[in-house]
C-alpha cells in the first residue's frame, strides 16, 4: 500500500475546526464531494497528466475514492474538507484540506487541482487567494502543503501564490514531497 503524504508530517494537539464551505468562495458553489462525484472528479483528474506522471500512477476511481478518506495520523473526517468548486453545476476545481494539521494554527492542502481548460487563466490562483483569505479570517496562521519534487508546474504555481519551501523534504515509496508553507 502506498504511503500517504499525510504520514510524513508530525502531529500536535488538535482541536476540531468546522469550516463554512459557503465562505470559501464568493464566485463558486463549494460543497463536500461524495462517492457519487467520483466520475466527475476522475474526468477532472484525467485532464492533469503532468501531476499523475510525477505521482507515478494513473487516476482511477479507486485511488480517488481513497483520497477522499485519506487522513493524517490523529485526524478525523470532521477535520477533512474534500470539496469541489462548481460553476453552473460544472466541477471547476477540487480541494483536499485538513483543518488544524499539523498544528491547530495550520490548514494543510493535501490536493488542489483545477480543470485543464482553466489552467494558466488565473482561476486556480483566484480560488486559492479567496480560500486563504477565508482561512486567515478563521484564525489560521499558516497554510502548508507538499508538492512532488521535480514537478516544476506545481512548484511554479505554489511559489507564484506565495508559498515558500520550509527546507523539509519527505520521501514516500513513489516520490519525494517538498514541504511548502505560507504565513496567512
Fold blueprint:
Blueprint: E1 29-32, H1 38-46, H2 49-55, H3 61-69, E2 80-87, E3 90-99, E4 106-114, H4 123-137, E5 142-148, H5 152-160, E6 164-171, E7 176-183
Parallel strand pairs: 4-5
Antiparallel strand pairs: 1-2, 2-3, 3-4, 5-7, 6-7
Short description:
With 184 residues, the protein is an alpha+beta fold. The protein is built from 5 helices and 7 strands, in the order E-H-H-H-E-E-E-H-E-H-E-E. The chain has one domain: Gcn5-related N-acetyltransferase (GNAT) (Aminopeptidase).
What does this structure look like?
Mean pLDDT is 89; it is low at 7-15. Helix 4 (123-137) links the parallel strand 4 and strand 5 (142-148). With 184 residues, the chain is an alpha+beta fold. It has a 7-stranded mixed sheet, with helices on both faces. It has helices spanning 38-46, 49-55, 61-69, 123-137, 152-160; strands at residues 29-32, 80-87, 90-99, 106-114, 142-148, 164-171, 176-183. The chain contains 5 helices and 7 strands.
Amino acid at each position: 500500500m502506498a504511503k500517504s503524504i499525510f504520514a510524513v508530517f508530525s502531529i500536535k494537539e488538535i482541536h476540531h475546526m468546522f469550516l463554512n464551505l459557503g465562505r470559501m468562495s464568493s464566485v463558486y458553489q463549494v460543497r463536500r464531494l461524495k462517492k457519487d462525484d467520483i466520475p466527475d472528479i476522475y474526468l477532472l483528474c484525467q485532464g492533469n497528466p503532468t501531476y499523475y506522471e510525477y505521482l507515478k500512477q494513473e487516476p482511477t476511481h479507486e485511488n480517488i475514492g481513497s483520497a477522499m478518506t485519506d487522513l493524517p495520523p490523529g485526524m478525523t473526517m470532521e477535520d477533512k474538507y474534500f470539496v469541489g468548486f462548481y460553476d453552473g453545476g460544472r466541477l471547476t476545481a477540487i480541494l483536499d484540506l485538513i483543518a488544524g494539521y499539523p498544528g491547530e494554527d495550520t490548514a494543510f492542502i493535501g490536493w488542489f487541482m483545477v480543470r485543464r481548460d482553466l489552467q494558466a487563466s488565473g482561476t486556480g490562483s483566484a480560488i486559492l487567494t479567496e480560500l486563504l483569505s477565508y482561512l486567515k479570517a478563521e484564525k489560521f496562521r499558516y497554510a502548508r502543503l507538499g508538492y512532488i519534487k521535480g514537478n516544476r508546474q506545481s512548484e511554479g504555481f505554489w511559489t507564484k501564490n506565495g508559498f515558500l519551501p520550509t527546507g523539509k523534504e519527505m520521501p514516500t515509496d513513489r516520490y519525494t514531497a517538498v514541504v511548502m508553507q505560507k504565513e496567512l
